[in-house]
Amino acid sequence: MFWKRHAKYCILEVYVVYLRKRLLLNKGEDMENISMAENSMTDKDTKRIMQVVERLTSLFGISSDEGSVCDCLIHEFGILFDSTEIDSNGNFIGKISSEYKDAKTLLIEAHMDRVGLMVTHITDEGRIKFTALGGIDTRILPYSRVIFDNESHLTGVIMQEENSDSSEIDKMYIFTGNSKAELDGVLYVGDRAVLKSEFKPLCGGEISSGALDNRAGIAAVICALETLDRTKPAYNLTVLFSTEEELGLHGGYTGSKSLAADAAIIVDVTHGKTADTKDMTNVFPLGCGAVICRGPNLHYQMTKRLLTVADKNNITNTIEVASSHSGTTAWAIQTSGMGIPSMLISIPLKYMHTNVEVAELSDIKAVSDLISAVIREGTVID
Asked: What domains are defined for the chain?
């Protein structure tokens, strides 16, 4: 997601997330707008979603260098599509044709990049200066481990300059233990890195990892396509996994401009409720299902039909409101070229843009089920 915040307390809450969520549910807090239909999560469903999410979050795919994600999508999931291609901006495009002669075309989009860091300078002492690629909350950076996305896969630790407790990036550096001479030929200005993370299942059906924004969204789309009878989708499907969303929605603009579609569903993450968002609106407790956005960025009637499909199929959902810019590629797709009428479905996510992002499997499943129902029923587009 393009607009990011709320990293405070992230480490502590990973360990108490299960108890806190159960207390919220028992008290009924923040659940007034949630349609709490019962989604059935079988062991098979859970295992498959976890497999896909874990695979996708293991990839670098930093904004402006998403090639590893594209390679995985083509070689491991390309069988889901009738055709695939990578466009000139690095976007993945997959197409599935409906057998119905007059079928309309539905675009399904999710961005595949993740936030990261880029080397700007290597000092004579071997200190690696860097900048952010995307909206990282710099308060979490000191003493975080990083791994570089190059042939060396060099690791390091982010340190603050002496006599500085500033959270400004220009007051930090990456320490690897190597001198400048030892880094010569191993690391270059412009090389990229991510905060080191590990995929971990938590209590209560929750998972933690870096890059859940937005690899969880891609997983929801993939798992939806895996459940379909490919000969009978109600729509012709174009799937766009876009690049550089974290830098300004770039792939959403370039990727959708040449794609003729009658409507689009955008899949992203939205802010999950944490300790520092207690009194804020538009943050959502994990377990609230598919978060469906309403606002001028999204098509009014199609979004209403999307809500109807969710309720009809007993898919847990809640409503988010965006009064102008949704902060997602829905903005790019709605306004690019001639424009495409758009809908937005999101997955609640805690600690966004950290290496310990947290999501709930049932929410990913709800989004996947909703996409599948839309494709199967064909009642959303006029």
From this structure: 10-114+198-377 (3.40.630.10), 116-195 (2.40.30.40)
